[in-house]
Amino acid sequence: MTRLTRRALALGLAALPLPALAARPAIAPLTADDRVLVDKAAAYLQGLTEAKGRFVQTDARGVSTQGTVYLKRPGKARFAYEAPSGLLVVADGANVSVADSRLKTFDRYPLMATPLSIFLARQIKLDRGVVISDVTRLADGFTITARDGKKQAEGQITLTFSNSPMALIGWTVSDAQGQATRIRLSGLQRASGLAPTLFVLNDPRPKSVGRAKM
Fold it and tell me: Which of 37, 109, 124, 180 is 20 to 30 A from 160 (CA-CA)?
């Protein structure tokens, strides 16, 4: 499996750096009703300091993998994929590390260079430093599409929320070619006292093994 393919497999969870987007169309200003939903989402995410749940990831080829997710704001997350996948993805507050036990590879990326950092921030300010390009109402919830206004993170992320109860139920990360990786969450519940070791991932390979560029 090539490094690019590994990168794509972990894209939706680690939200790894995406290729630069093509010229972006003009974005219509949010309506008052849109702003109500954006503020509602920001308040919910701000209160989601620690959480645990399950995820199913579907990549652009339609291949699905699943596992357990742990979130701890600010900046920390752990995505433990189940067999046969050998992936483990950990955000430690500064970097996102991706280890593949089957291929014996290890890669690391700056957290701030990822769209996922938008909702792992210390202060969720969806009206500051973030460009909201779309708010869509669904039968049982709504979606918010955002990108980093400072352009530290290329690409965009679409967050999906349910209304009853109010909850983050997934997200989609899209690249410049329109390729999307979707994450569906289930059973995401607030947690407390998550072990700090969950959010630490060091390169497990012997020092003699050639390591990927960080």
Answer: 109
